[in-house]
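Memo to structure team: turn this sequence into structure tokens by end of day. - J.P.
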Amino acid sequence: MATLRLSIFEATLISTTDSLLMYIVSFWSLQDIITCQGLSLVLNNIMRYYTSRVWNPDVFFQPWFKDDPVYFRELLQQCGAVVSGSQITQLLDRARYPGSDMDIFLRVGGLGDMGTWLQDQGYAYVSQYPNYKTAHRRILRISHRIITERNPGGPAVQGVFNYQRFIASTTTIFLQKIQLIAVDTNPIQHVLFDFHSTCVMNFMTFDAVISIFPLPTFILHKSYVLRNRDELGNQSDEWKSKYRDRGFRIVQRRTKGQHHDLVLGKRSIADKNSWIIKLAGKTYPF
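Reply from structure team:
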């Protein structure tokens, strides 16, 4: 039987401890990881092990919930919801944005079940409206408005519900905030057509994490503006400053013949230009 001969590089990675391997590869770019996977079967297996750990949303979201985060994904399915925004961007970018909220996008019909579960996890509903102290009353108000007004040209966001809890560590107390964002269409369509730029067009469903523009976002750290200042008002400068601080170069206009990393034309969510991480896990009966 032939003996597999390892390079010094392969032998070093295999012989190192789990924690040291995770630490070493954390300094590699996404392009480095992709390149390494194609060099040999041994390196491919090592990188697959690393990626299964670092891009595991069940581990990533563990600090947010008391219960099994796999249950949270099942609840996403039940409520027709997706997680998007900065949490998924930092998951895929292997980064940490201190103090960032979790944004869950869903239709009005899923607000009750998701909000109740968040309260079971220790979160408190924080009302911004004196006349609607409870989430239930505000859900009823929004539902009534949707039914009676029937305005097809109305706002894309029907309402934002804020939940928060305080968590104590050995050295400090910090605040965790989750926003339930009720939208007027399928939440995935909202991500695709109502977000400000390409770097945040990433989302998690109950069974997959998907990035629509992975090349410019996670390899080149560029973000193409999709909505102009007239549409976003003063929020335009705010999000641009925030994502520049997070290491992204904001591209305002696409010049003809340049920026070949931005694929134009007909696209689908699961096409070859997207990055898709399929998720496994238990199935809970409802």
